[in-house]
Automatic annotation (TrEMBL):
<dbReference type="InterPro" id="IPR003721">
    <property type="entry name" value="Pantoate_ligase"/>
</dbReference>
<protein>
    <recommendedName>
        <fullName>Pantothenate synthetase</fullName>
        <ecNumber>6.3.2.1</ecNumber>
    </recommendedName>
</protein>
<feature type="binding site">
    <location>
        <position position="65"/>
    </location>
    <ligand>
        <name>beta-alanine</name>
    </ligand>
</feature>
<keyword id="KW-0067">ATP-binding</keyword>
<dbReference type="InterPro" id="IPR014729">
    <property type="entry name" value="Rossmann-like_a/b/a_fold"/>
</dbReference>
<dbReference type="InterPro" id="IPR042176">
    <property type="entry name" value="Pantoate_ligase_C"/>
</dbReference>
<feature type="binding site">
    <location>
        <begin position="151"/>
        <end position="154"/>
    </location>
    <ligand>
        <name>ATP</name>
    </ligand>
</feature>
<keyword id="KW-0547">Nucleotide-binding</keyword>
<feature type="binding site">
    <location>
        <begin position="188"/>
        <end position="191"/>
    </location>
    <ligand>
        <name>ATP</name>
    </ligand>
</feature>
<keyword id="KW-0436">Ligase</keyword>
<feature type="binding site">
    <location>
        <position position="180"/>
    </location>
    <ligand>
        <name>ATP</name>
    </ligand>
</feature>
<feature type="active site" description="Proton donor">
    <location>
        <position position="41"/>
    </location>
</feature>
<comment type="function">
    <text>Catalyzes the condensation of pantoate with beta-alanine in an ATP-dependent reaction via a pantoyl-adenylate intermediate.</text>
</comment>
<keyword id="KW-0566">Pantothenate biosynthesis</keyword>
<dbReference type="Pfam" id="PF02569">
    <property type="entry name" value="Pantoate_ligase"/>
</dbReference>
<keyword id="KW-0963">Cytoplasm</keyword>
<feature type="binding site">
    <location>
        <position position="65"/>
    </location>
    <ligand>
        <name>(R)-pantoate</name>
    </ligand>
</feature>
Length: 280
């Protein structure tokens, strides 16, 4: 068992710890998370290590990306075991601020983003990407990493963050990492913990439907037919679908051709909302 990584609760302390390392010429990677870490998060840490000398993870359940009535209160918070996992993956330090550090009284700034943020998640969670963009900008400016790693699991989010980093001339390279799945195909997610045994069984349908749809598209079926069948399959399995859409993999607009496009889905089983996506 390795020593736990140092935990920084404030931006000043974190910056003070990083300054000498930067002076030594060490490159720094940031892996932002909301904690309740699983193998998907840890794959981002591994990817980060490929690109930089030092990995910093952040753990912050960001209130600004939850709307009233969403799962902010019940979101799993497991800091102790998260720190152990990060230690096992040789993370140098963890930035785990409280909400007051990130959003002190009088906080009045937010980042509004359009482009890849339009549609999909925004149609169902209109507050979401402004909350994400604001917190990620703050994290990137707090750490000023050389690179930051984000999962393709949250595919639209990855594109939104790339856009924001470019638009704001942030000095960090944004790197995407592939989706890590359970053995039965379910994309790993901290929210999978909400699923009871029956819902967990149902949840398999989401990746199965994506794979079936991807294969049908590759075999030349029309998107209209593929989508109709996918929506029916999800409904039959017990999912209430928010969206099942085909998008251009880069800008997330309507694709001209299916090859290289991406299918993105969000659907609810019981009260748990799951998202997933697949390259065509
Ligand atoms: P979260 O803690 O859910 O906000 O996720 C933090 C980061 O981990 C985001 O960049 C996610 O896209 C990424 N992530 C979450 N689940 C997975 C997964 N199953 N595979 C790869 N990356 C993931």
């Amino acid at each position: 068992m390795r020593n736990l990584p140092d935990v920084y609760r404030g931006v000043d302390a974190l910056r003070a710890a990083l300054a000498p390392l930067r002076q030594e010429g060490k490159t720094i990677a940031l892996v932002p998370t909301m904690g309740a870490l699983h193998a998907g998060h840890l794959s981002l840490v591994e990817k980060a290590r490929e690109h930089a000398d030092i990995v910093i993870a952040s753990i912050f359940v960001n209130p600004k990306q939850f709307a009233p009535g969403e799962d902010f209160e019940s979101y799993p918070r497991t800091e102790e075991s998260d720190l152990q996992k990060l230690a096992d993956h040789n993370v140098f330090g963890v930035f785990a601020p409280n909400a007051k550090e990130m959003y002190p009284n009088g906080f009045a700034t937010s980042i509004q983003i359009e482009g890849p943020a339009l549609g999909l998640e925004t149609d169902h969670r209109p507050h979401f990407f402004n909350g994400v963009a604001t917190v990620v900008a703050k994290l990137l400016l707090a750490v000023l990493p050389d690179i930051a790693v984000f999962g393709e699991k949250d595919y639209q989010q990855l594109r939104v963050i790339e856009r924001m980093a470019k638009d704001l001339h942030l000095p960090t390279k944004i790197v995407g990492a592939p989706i890590v799945r359970e053995h039965d195909g379910l994309a790993m997610s901290s929210r999978n913990e909400y699923l009871d045994a029956k819902e967990r069984q149902t949840a398999i349908a989401i990746s199965q439907t994506l794979t079936t749809a991807r294969n049908a598209l590759r075999n030349g079926e029309s998107w209209i037919d593929v989508r109709k069948k996918a929506l029916a399959a999800l409904k039959l399995s017990g999912f209430a679908t928010d969206y099942f859409e085909l998008r251009h993999a880069k800008h997330l607009g309507t694709p001209i051709e299916t090859s290289g496009a991406r299918i993105l889905v969000a659907a609810k089983v019981g009260t748990t909302r799951l998202i997933d996506n697949i390259e065509v």
